Structures are given as C-alpha cells and as structure tokens.
Amino acid sequence: MITVKLKYFGQIAEKAGIDEEQLTLVSPNLNTLIKDLSQKYDLTKLNFSVAVNRAQVTTNVTLKNNDEVALLPPFAGG
Amino acid sequence: MKRYDKQIKLKQVGQDGQKKLADAKVLIVGAGGLGAAILPYLASAGIGKIGLIDGDCVDETNLHRQIIYTEKSVGQFKVEEAAKYIQKLNSQIKVEAIKAYLTAQNAFMIINKYDLVVDATDNINVRYLINDICVMTHKAFVYGAVHKFEGQISVFNYKNGPTYRCLFPENKQAAGSCEELGILGPNVGIIGTLQANEVLKIILETGQVLSGKLLLYNFLNNQQTLIHFKKNEHANINCHFHQQDYATANKGISAEKAIKENFILIDIREKQPQEHGSHLLHIPFSQLNQAVSRLDENKNYALFCQKGIISQQAVQQLSNYNLNLYYITDNADRILNLWQHEKEKSIY
After folding, report:
1. For A19, which residue in chain B has the nearest alpha carbon?
2. What is the pLDDT of residues B56-73, one digit of tens each?
C-alpha cells in the first residue's frame, strides 16, 4: 500500500469538489488510479493531462509512496 | 527617447533591447480580458508593431474586466476601440486592427506577418488553430487562459520547443469561457500581465522563458504550480490540419448574443419541447440532416442542447452546408429562461 497526494485543477477540481486529497492505493499503477478517479468523479468526458511530481507523464508508470499526481485540464476563458 | 529611460536603465534591456522591442511585430489574438491586460504593457514598452484581431463588439458586461474600454465603447468594435486607446498611449508604434475572428482561412496570412503570437482568446478550438499555424510558420506563441479563480500560462513552440498539442493532444471537450462561468477582473489581468512579461522576455532574449513549463495560478489561495512537459514527436499537426477541429472555432456564442441579435434558436434535444415559435424551433439532433434543407441561408441559426456539447457537434457535422449555424455555449434551461424573459419584455 502506498499513499499519494492528488491535485485537481479547473473543471476537475469542480467535479471532485476539492482541489487536493491524499489517497492510499492498493495498486501503484497510475492508469488504474486515473480510471478509478474518472469513475469516482465522473471525469470520462473531460480532457486532461496527468503529471507526476510536477512533470507530465504520457505513459503508464508505477507510483511510489508520497508521489504527487496532478490532473490538468486545459482552460478556455480569456 | 526619454519615455523608455526607466526600462533602458535595466542591463537586460539597454539601448540594444529597446531596439529589439521597436523592431518586434507581435500579434494578439483576442481583445477581451486577457487582450485588454496585455495590450497596454506591450504598447507602452514600445513594441514596434502590434496586430490585434477580434470580431467582437464591446458589451456592457465586458467592462468589469476589459479595462481599456469605457462606457462609450459599448456597441463599438473592440479592435477599433483598442486601437484608439493604444494610439493615445503611444503614438510612436504601429497598430493593425483586424475586425474579424481568426479562422482556418485567414490564420496563415495573418500570423505569417508577425514574429510572435499572443493567445488571448476564450476558445479552445482557436488555440489549436493558433498552435498549428505557429508550428507551420516557426513562431512561438504565448498562451494564457483562465477558469474562474484559476489561470494557466505557458509559451509554446519556442525555438522548436513543446507545443500546445504536446500538453493537450486531444480536443474532446467544451470547456467554459469567462462569459459562461464568470471571472473577477484582476484574475484575468494577472494572467494577461504575465503573458506580456513573457513576450518582453522572448524579444529581449533574457530570463527563462516558460517553454516546456505550464504555470498554474490559483487566485483564491495564491498557490502557484509549475508543471514540466516535453516535446511529443507524435503530436503531429498534419493529421489534424484542415480537419473539422477548426470548423466550429468561432461558432460558439453566448445565449445573450443569440437572443439579442435575433438568431433563430433551434432546440436539438430529442425530448418534446414545451413551446415553439417563429424564433424557437425544435429539430431533434437525429433529424437534423433531413431538416437542414428547410433552413434559410440568409438567416442566423443558434443551436442548443442540454449542455452545449451536442450542439457543437451538430454545427461541426453540418459545416459543409452553406448556412449560418452557431451553437450556444450554455445550458438549455438558462437559454429558455432568457428567451422567455426577452419575449415577455417585448410584449409589454
């Protein structure tokens, strides 16, 4: 089991109702985490990038204890 | 020239830097909240030529954040009002005011004339358009966007660096604009000012440009988050270019605009509507293709659905017809409420 910190932005934070949280994970697999969060907060229709420890990741990675995972949607307003 | 003394004094600027600014040609896409914050700083710093493109007019609801406009500007074209403002601020610089929206048809011609592009739009599709043309013409673009109390800034395609498509490869969602979601004036001002700062750094070749980095700003708790990202060689623009990504780039309008400008509203939801009228039609999404021949090409139509997502798809799907079709970036309940309200106003 590992604990990770989640950071949410824009529409994702609105859907989740919070802008950060700590989660204890059974699986350290990033894709599994994203899939679970998408279901939990109904994010499937949203477009977002994922960053681990403040660097974007585009492939699946194995998370470590205390990693920070950020979900980043594009913003539209201006 | 005395007016620039205080910036020339900085060793990062100097006489050489001031000449670089005077020689620079910068295009600002969008004269809304971000544009209104970026423009005065670039003009007063002595950028030699500033291009400004926007087809919109000033609305009373813009005034709280688009601070270069006055009460007298309401109803006037934004770029014309902005050009007057800049000329008063700095008569020594050139301004090209383009009274149009950036589209797939005009983007290459316009962007190609400038050294650097500032994205001050409120539309994600236009951002992909700016990105792709900047990649094709080897120009950097300074990105800024806001979402309620949050902002994002980055510099894309700087010296062949990562692009918007490297950070956001997919374009599948309709994200909200300031018109729909609401915004505080200073928030959009902060992001615009940071964009202006990146523009000056790029021209002066000083400091660390926000290339390969996305800065996120939270205005409620003042937290800043810097995310690093790399160039993705698979984020190829060729497979997207001229595709329908841009077809609806400027086709999203507010409920207020659609109603005020007498667009014919079309409810495309499948369920039976409560009422019809000459300015409110009901054509379910599934029947649009058959019904399209009945629409008049001299009229403006504004499609709406529950959330503004299906209606955007519908406009995209019908983009080959010679019709003035738009979609309303708002939810059906609010649109119908506004419509009802306007109708009652016109009766009494």
Report:
1. B218
2. 999 999 999 999 999 999
Between chains, do A78 and B188 touch, taking CB under 8 Å as contact? yes
**Contact of B75 with B68, CB cutoff 8 Å:** no
**Are B224 and B255 part of one and the same domain?**
no
| A56 chain-B contacts, CB cut-off 8 A | 167, 227-230
Domain shared by B180 and B272, yes or no: no
pLDDT tens-digit profile of A24-70?
999 999 999 999 999 999 998 899 999 999 999 998 999 999 999 99
ipTM: 0.96
Name the DSSP class of B68: T
What are the DSSP E strand ranges found in chain B?
A: 25-29, 49-53, 94-98, 116-119, 140-147, 150-156, 213-218, 224-228, 252-253, 264-267, 280-282, 300-304, 324-328
The number of beta carbons lying within 10 Å of the beta carbon of residue A40 is 10
Task: State the CATH number of the domain containing residue B316.
Answer: 3.40.250.10
Whether residues B127 and B185 share a domain: the answer is yes
Class of A2-72 per CATH?
A: alpha beta
- Residue B117 belongs to a domain: yes
Looking at the structure, tell me whether residues B51 and B189 fall in a common domain: yes
Torsion of CA B103, B104, B108, B110, to 10 degrees: -10
Does residue B217 share a domain with residue B268?
no
C-alpha angle B57-B268-B182 in degrees, rounded to nearest 5: 40
